[in-house]
Design brief:
The protein is α+β, with helices and mostly antiparallel strands. It is built from 5 helices and 12 strands. The chain has helices spanning about 5-10, 15-20, 25-30, 75-85, 100-105; strands at about 35-40, 40-45, 50-55, 60-65, 65-75, 85-90, 120-125, 130, 135-150, 150-165, 170-175, 175-180. The strands form 3 sheets. Strands 3-2-6-9-10-5-4 form a 7-stranded antiparallel sheet, sandwiched between helices. A 3-stranded antiparallel sheet has the order 1-11-12, with no helix packed on it. A hairpin with a 4-residue loop joins strand 2 and strand 3. The relative contact order is 0.19.
């Protein structure tokens, strides 16, 4: 656990539980396959560059102030661009946007980098981060804190602008595949 958090909360982990071994990465991944998750593209950019990725690790933190947490692998260019710009957009994908999910997940041969943005129609809301038109929801955010979490950065964000779509199915990821469910 982050020592800074331990100091803030004056909390100490249970020593007996700290001695117990964790499950393997494969065991963890296999269990998580059964956790149905909404699918989003996380995008960032400025005048010179845009980047994004498909993610399921997005969570609402508080409504007042409006905050989200987004986990992004440190090894992807989008993470670097988010750190540089201090902004990102969470684009919650609709069922008819599976091609966008696959493009940003690297699941379409020879589609990478800027060519990912050829899937879908993109504009901007407030921060300049790319926002997908027709997404079920867009959350345009400024990053307020960054936490180092092993292989990922956890970006704590404040939501500056939103846009919603009232129709369409939601896109989820379950047991290794994309699924559509009605709203």
């Amino acid at each position: 656990m982050n020592q800074h958090i331990n100091q803030l909360l004056d909390w100490t982990p249970n020593a007996e539980l700290s001695e117990k071994p964790m499950v393997s990465a494969d065991e963890h991944r296999n269990g998580m396959r059964h956790f149905a998750m909404g699918v989003s593209t996380i995008t960032s950019g400025d005048d010179k560059a845009r980047a994004g990725l498909t993610a399921t690790a997005v969570c609402s933190v508080t409504a007042d102030p409006p905050r989200l947490v987004v986990f992004v692998n440190k090894g992807v260019y989008a993470s670097e661009l988010i750190l540089k710009s201090g902004a990102l957009c969470v684009n919650v994908l609709a069922g008819d946007q599976e091609d966008v999910a696959k493009a940003f997940a690297g699941m379409i041969k020879d589609v990478q980098g800027e060519s990912r943005f050829e899937f879908g129609t993109w504009d901007n809301l407030t921060t300049g981060a790319p926002a997908l038109q027709g997404a079920l929801a867009n959350f345009d955010c400024r990053v307020v804190k960054v936490f180092d979490e092993s292989t990922h950065h956890a970006f704590l964000c404040e939501v500056l602008a939103t846009r919603e779509r009232q129709d369409g199915e939601a896109l989820i990821y379950l047991n290794g595949g994309f699924r559509q469910i009605p709203q």
